[in-house]
Amino acid sequence: MTVTTRFAPSPTGRLHVGNIFTAVHNYLLAKKAGGRFILRLDDTDRARSTEAFAQGIRDDLAWLGLVPDAEVRQSDRVAAYDAALERLHAMGRAYRCYESPEELDIKRKVQLSRGLPPAYDRAALKLSDADHARLEGEGIRPHWRFRLDHDGHVEWDDLIRGPSHIDPASLSDPVVRRADGGYLYMLPSVVDDIDLGITHVVRGEDHVANSAIQLQMFEALGCAPPRLAHFGLLTSVDGELSKRVGSAGTEALKELGIEPIAVVAMLARLGTADAIEPVADLATLAERHDLGRLGNTHPRFDPAELRHLNARIVHQLPFEAVRDRLPAGMDGTAWEVIRPNLTTVAEAADWWSVVEGPIAAEIAPEDESYLAEAHAGLAELPWHGDVWHALVEALKARTGRKGKALFQPLRRALTGRDHGPEMAALLPLIGRERALARLAR
Ligand code: GLU
Known about the structure:
With 441 residues, the chain is mainly α. It folds into five domains: 4-74 and 188-235, 3-Layer(aba) Sandwich (Rossmann fold); 79-150 and 166-177, Glutamyl-tRNA Synthetase, Domain 3 (Glutamyl-tRNA Synthetase, domain 3, Alpha-Beta Complex); 236-314, Glutamyl-trna Synthetase, Domain 2 (Glutamyl-tRNA Synthetase, domain 2, Orthogonal Bundle), CATH 1.10.1160; 319-356, no CATH class; 365-440, Arc Repressor Mutant, subunit A. 46% of the residues lie in helices and 11% in strands. A three-stranded parallel β-sheet has the order 1-2-3, with helices on one face. It has a three-stranded antiparallel β-sheet with strand order 4-5-8. Strand 1, helix 1 and strand 2 form a beta-alpha-beta unit. Helix 16 packs antiparallel against helix 20 (432-440). It binds glutamic acid.
């Protein structure tokens, strides 16, 4: 059995942190087992689905490195759904209904006013052949419902939630095909999972009730269902996944300078008790992936934590991985000197401009003679080895300054900043001429 998972977004928008979480777990689960990860575009909603969004989703996955092994679109598979519906009809598990949305609404209101659950009353099951002929003769096109088995208790061993069960008697027979002939999500998803050999379905807990319905569909169609896993939906630091955070798409993450691997590394561990590790390759993340570690909680997504993880990952990135994104002239040595100070790779350009100059540095009046002393001292020193420490030692002996008063004015004059990379490593990058000029001002 090849472990096969699918990620099934509707192409009605781009990916955001919430559904990237789904993609990450399905991808890692499949890859850990050497299996397949399929992109399924749930585009049965023809009015809202667009090719531009489909392409956007492909681009988002490519940026994240979650490259699918195959892609299918539900709009290409209508014949398979028709065949399944026909089979269900023949065995009495699908039936035609004619109520208008208004009629259904009135029925629901009446049920609610009587304190009853607003489930469909199955009135259409009582229609005779003659009734069907009459209604269709009146030009009313039927919609189709799947008939749940109200007596069959639905149970599954959820890979995250553990033993789970739902009483189908509490659920409405779901509409599977609309009067206009278009399919709703429920049945196509099952038909696709069967045809694509999906072995594991990982999705949000908002699909738990759908799972009860879909397990009955698998059974009716004579197929073993995939293993199911439902995770708690992501929340933000302030309790709910706010618009700004929840809708953070790959464009926004890119703009923030977040490495795609940081997004995957973070989402792979979010909601588990395990530490989030600065792992920079997908194979290692897959190897360490364990769906069972996801508890029955709502993982909390914190953009600040993502930035922190990003920094830890950037601190490990080798020059080869970033050279195309660095400013011209910045070499491997410079990268290693500057890297520990970065939260994002893009910030390297900022430090490189400090190296190359020109820089603006505010010099305190009481440091002016000290810096003149430093200039003279540096001019005398041979430019090799640890020039920085040689300079500081010489100035210490000459001026009696210590600690911060000794090196802080030098850092500020040489870089225009009060903090930054190790001066011992930065000074050789700045070079003798520029350093002397900066001390002379
Ligand atoms: N298109 C559905 C969604 O995005 C897929 C759900 C599923 O994984 O079956 O919610």
